[in-house]
Design goal:
18 strands, 4 domains, alpha/beta, binds magnesium ion, binds guanosine-5'-triphosphate, Methane Monooxygenase Hydroxylase, Chain G, domain 1, 390 residues, 6-stranded mixed beta sheet
């Protein structure tokens, strides 16, 4: 449903977009909220504006504290290993127990909620690859806009993969899973590619409105798009679209950057007696590209394949490299799926790429063992590459 804002309300939002400082942004949003229409179509935008305002006020407060010399705990967790998967879920679902079961980390685990106060990383081994798992404080499903949620979702936005955890001892796992999914969606985090994705990137680099990406515009033309954007005083921007996208999606994307995160759900505590209907209900609820594991952190059952699943979801491959006449480096190089020999060389050292002559490849991508290839040869998982330089 389109937001159908009045010109006045749109002008206030435009002012928000153009604001440089937090104070200006807060003022513009407050003004917007005071003139915004209250009809159904504008609901999402109003929700967004209230949330954004709360976030900005929190940021303002954090800066004030920092200036005063306080500086709260750092919540950001730097990525390590082949990629980062963040455990997310309601209190007591067993997030910390999963981290403890699969990694060397020693988080606090307790039979009552709100045990975890800060994110904690640990490394999960899959074959010769290390994947980082991050445990987080619980999400509050009945207080979607709480500061804790803001912080935890901030960690989630920075992750490669989300591991959603719901306990099978929950009185209603289906409803809890549903609320968890809608919390993420409301906050602009999409767990499935099936939904259309739009990004509106304002840029002085382009003149006019440029549409990019593989998506399809449903029920609107480029002219409609230009008209919508210009009503928000956006004249120069790149609009990236993926999947099927409506004009409402574009309008929502002007203010809320939506992102896609490959996700998996774990129904934990399967060692306890539980309702099979709940498992079926959750499976039905999940988009088809979100795998479901029914598992137990207590016994480890059901978690055996997690490393491999996460590795596949990361969209990376490992490549072993060797210098001519030497043994291969035992530590694999982790590179994006679809990478070429020259990209692998560049990752090892700039000079190796600059002086590249040819490479020999063993493994899946080679026609025969030790095939001589050029810089654009596409590598596959577990290939061995020997780079020859000039
Ligand atoms: N039976 C059983 N109990 C589990 C399992 N996983 C966790 N628990 C128990 O559930 C309780 C909560 O576990 P935690 O790992 O602390 O849960 P959490 O999600 O990290 O909780 P918060 O940090 O409060 O969000 C503890 O008493 C655990 O021992 C499981 O697979 N089976
Ligand atoms: Mg915990």
């Amino acid at each position: 449903m389109p937001a159908n804002l009045t010109a006045e309300a749109k002008a206030k939002l435009a002012k928000y977009s153009e604001a440089k400082t937090i104070e200006e942004k807060i003022k513009a949003l407050e003004e917007f909220l005071s003139v915004a229409p209250k009809h159904k179509g504008a609901e999402n935008l109003l929700l967004w504006a209230r949330r954004r305002l709360a976030e900005l006020r929190e940021e303002q407060e954090a800066r004030r504290r920092k200036k005063a010399g306080g500086g709260g705990p750092r919540i950001f967790v730097e990525r390590a290993g082949a990629g980062q998967a963040v455990l997310l879920g309601p209190p007591n679902s067993g997030k910390s127990s999963i981290l403890a079961r699969l990694t060397n980390a020693k988080p606090e685990i307790a039979p009552y909620p709100f045990t975890t106060q800060l994110p904690m990383p640990g490394m999960l081994s899959y074959e010769d690859v290390q994947i980082q798992l991050v445990d987080t404080p619980p999400l509050l499903l009945d207080q979607p806009d709480s500061p804790v949620n803001n912080r935890v979702l901030g960690v989630a936005r920075n992750a490669n993969i989300l591991i959603l955890v719901v306990g099978l001892d929950d009185p209603d796992p289906v409803s809890t899973a549903r609320r968890l999914l809608s919390l993420l969606e409301d906050r602009g985090i999409l767990v499935t590619r099936a939904r259309g994705l739009v990004r509106v990137v304002k840029s002085r680099q382009v003149t006019g409105i440029k549409v990019q990406g593989t998506g399809r515009m449903i029920g609107f033309t480029e002219d409609d798009l230009k008209r919508l954007l210009s009503s928000y005083r956006i004249y120069n921007a790149v609009v990236e679209i993926e999947g099927e996208v409506t004009l409402d999606d574009v309008e929502a994307a002007i203010f809320q950057q939506r992102i896609y995160k490959p996700s998996i759900m774990i129904l934990n505590k399967a060692d306890l007696p539980h309702n099979r209907e709940a498992v079926i209900g959750v499976r039905k609820l999940l988009p088809s590209d979100v795998p479901l594991l029914v598992a137990s952190a207590k016994t480890g059952k059901g978690l055996e394949g997690l490393g491999e699943t996460l590795f596949k979801m990361l969209g990376v491959i490992r490549v072993y490299t060797k210098q001519p006449n030497k043994e291969p480096d035992p530590q694999p190089l982790i590179i994006e799926k679809g990478s070429t020999v020259i990209e692998a060389a560049r990752r090892i050292h700039k000079d190796l790429a600059r002086n590249f002559k040819y490479a020999r490849v063993w493994g899946k991508s080679a026609k025969y063992p030790g095939q001589k290839v050029g810089p654009d040869h596409v590598l596959e998982d577990k290939d061995l590459v020997e780079i020859h330089t000039r």
